[in-house]
Specification:
Layout lengths: L5 H13 L2 E2 H9 L6 H14 L2 E4 L6 E4 L3 H16 L4 H10 L5 H21 L1
Antiparallel strand pairs: 1-3, 2-3
Helix pairs in contact: 2-3
């Protein structure tokens, strides 16, 4: 599976949030953040179609594209790549770096404790 580029990821976000969409719709959403030409959006979607990131619905007059790759799977793969490339595979190093660079609220700390408890329970049940 191809890893989406930054521009492709922006398009995928639109398709994940709104479902199958015309090129015009995707372009309008992208233009709300940054000036992007219609033909540029169309070309990206065509390339993404060739890569297997999207499919084009040929039942419509207009070009309607749908994301083929799952949002959660894509995020997980990208996070795994990031952790492996930047933190030598250590999720703990990434978390510690992130938490050390941010002001964290009591609510966030409580959320982290809940997540840790869930992870601990999953690990206990695996054994």
């Amino acid at each position: 599976m191809f890893k989406p580029t930054e521009a492709e990821l922006e398009i995928l976000k639109v398709l994940w949030q709104h479902g199958p969409s015309t090129v015009r719709f995707v372009n309008d959403i992208l233009n709300s953040k940054k000036d992007v030409g219609y033909t540029t959006t169309l070309k990206f979607l065509q390339i993404m179609n060739e890569k297997g990131l999207t499919i084009r619905d040929t039942d419509h007059k207009t070009h309607v594209y749908k994301a083929v790759i799952n949002e959660a799977d894509t995020k997980n793969r990208m996070i795994d790549d990031f952790v492996n490339n930047v933190f030598h595979g250590s999720a703990m190093n990434m978390v510690m770096q992130t938490l050390g660079n941010q002001k964290i609220s009591h609510e966030d700390i409580n959320d982290l404790k809940s997540i840790i408890a869930i992870i601990e329970n999953k690990n206990i049940n695996k054994d």
